[in-house]
Design goal:
This protein is of the alpha/beta class. Helices cover about 50% and strands about 15% of the residues. It has a six-stranded parallel sheet with strand order 2-1-3-4-5-6, with helices on both faces.
Length: about 220
């Protein structure tokens, strides 16, 4: 049997988590840690050079959260497998990431050995979802089968979601424009498009939605 090594990148804003994962994988020949990032935007910049096979992804991170980072990775690098490793078990996160096409979801209150199980499953071209997340996904599938109404939030584009998170984090239009390399007018257009889609006419309304949808934590 031909053995191969999966290149692993860790994206988490807590150094202790990164070091813990590196320690667990150190003696496992199936995996090689090739790099790390402390937020989503940094991960997107590094992934081209690092060329990971598997990304271990946190959710709650500044600048660009794990869900929207995952959506961009899936679009730009569709062969890269993503395992979510997070403390969040809320349905908004689990369903959003399941729909984004992640290969695994492990909760941080589980032992690191479960993360290794997920890595092994994905390494062998499979998937791994912890018991709690499996239940949420099954309920979601049942709701789809029942024909429940689609959430208007799902109509937002990736760029609109980026702008929404940055607005909710308190960045100005000018700051967002500089960070995303676009004009302030473009950012304003995204803001008003989101207001129309989400049926709100105030910035405060957008921020409330961002909090409810867990784009930011308070």
């Amino acid at each position: 049997m031909i053995m191969f090594t999966s290149r692993v990148m860790v994206v988490d804003d807590h150094r202790a988590v990164i070091e813990g994962i590196k320690g667990v994988l150190h003696d496992l020949t199936e995996f090689k840690i090739v790099g790390e990032a402390v937020h989503g935007r940094q991960a997107l910049k590094r992934i081209e050079a690092l060329k990971p096979d598997i990304v271990i992804m946190d959710i709650s991170m500044p600048n660009l959260n794990g869900l929207d980072t995952t959506l961009q990775i899936r679009k730009l690098y569709p062969t890269v497998k993503i395992i979510v490793y997070s403390m969040h078990s809320e349905s908004e996160y689990v369903i959003g990431l399941f729909k984004a096409g992640v290969s695994g979801y492990v909760l941080k209150d589980s032992p690191l050995s479960e993360l290794v199980l997920a890595l092994n499953a994905v390494h062998q071209q499979g998937t791994y979802f912890s018991a709690a997340t499996q239940t949420i996904i099954q309920q979601h599938i049942k709701s789809l089968e029942a024909g429940l109404k689609k959430d208007a939030f799902d109509s937002l584009s990736l760029r609109e979601r980026e702008v929404l998170q940055l607005l909710a984090e308190g960045h100005s239009i000018k700051e967002i424009a500089i960070q995303l390399c676009v004009s302030p007018k473009t950012v304003e257009t995204h803001k008003y498009n989101m207001m129309a889609k989400l049926d709100t006419n105030r910035l405060a309304g957008l921020i409330k939605i961002a909090i409810r949808k867990k784009l930011i934590t308070i």
